[in-house]
Amino acid sequence: MALIRLAELDELEGTPREVAESGQAQYGHLLNTWRAIMNKPDLFGAYLPFLRQVAGPGVLDVKIKDLSALYVGFLNHCRYTASHRSTSGLKNGVTAEQMIAAVAGDWGDFDERTQAALEFTRELTLNPQTVTYDDAPQAVSSATLAALKNEFSDVEILELSMSVSVWNALSRFHRVMGFDLDMPEAPEGVNPK
């Protein structure tokens, strides 16, 4: 059961309602995250377009975005995020086997770009909690930052960094809210315990 009340579409008007209706048309229903944020309509009106920019098509390969976001959900033990990001990944051509390999750290069959993105994702998700500023001012090792610079353009690094950061925030939001799943469960081996 969700921590807070989940709002309904008929409570919105203007731009927030238009945004909610576009999301509902895309997914066939209102997602629980949206319904929680809809308690503050102006926040929701800004949130969904922003998230579409972060998670949607961009310069960075969408498969890398999906694998990275799924890994964030897995590392944060968030079933809701893993459900959403695996659904997106499957839609975008990521296989269940690739998802399992990504979250298991079995990256040998991935290309250098994907490996660099996953290592960056792991470090940016886990390091801020355990690595001091003095040890890693950017929260990520210099070797990982160098690999990013070698494999990706500045815009791709921006997109990946923003995606990892946003999914870290959202997976924590999802967990504390206690949402029931509103998309299929993540494949076995990807679903956090």
Salient structural properties:
single chain, 193 residues, mainly alpha, AhpD-like, 2 domains, 9 helices, 0% strand, globular
Helix and strand topology:
Elements lengths: L13 H14 L4 H6 L3 H15 L6 H14 L3 H13 L4 H9 L7 H19 L11 H10 L2 H24 L16
Characterization of the model:
The protein is mostly helical. It folds into 2 domains: 9-55, no CATH class; 62-177, AhpD-like (Up-down Bundle), CATH 1.20.1290. 64% of the residues lie in helices and 0% in strands. It has 9 helices and no strands. It has helices at residues 14-27, 32-37, 41-55, 62-75, 79-91, 96-104, 112-130, 142-151, 154-177. Helix 1 (14-27) packs across helix 3 (41-55), helix 4 packs antiparallel against helix 5 and helix 7 packs across helix 9. It is globular. The model has no long low-confidence stretch (mean pLDDT 95).
Care to give the gist of this entry?
The protein has 193 residues and is an all-alpha fold. The chain has helices at residues 14-27, 32-37, 41-55, 62-75, 79-91, 96-104, 112-130, 142-151, 154-177.
Mean pLDDT: 95
Order of helices and strands: HHHHHHHHH
* Strand percent estimate: under 5%
Give the helix tally.
9
Question: How many distinct folded domains?
Answer: 2
DSSP strand tally: 0
Outline, from the CA principal axes?
globular
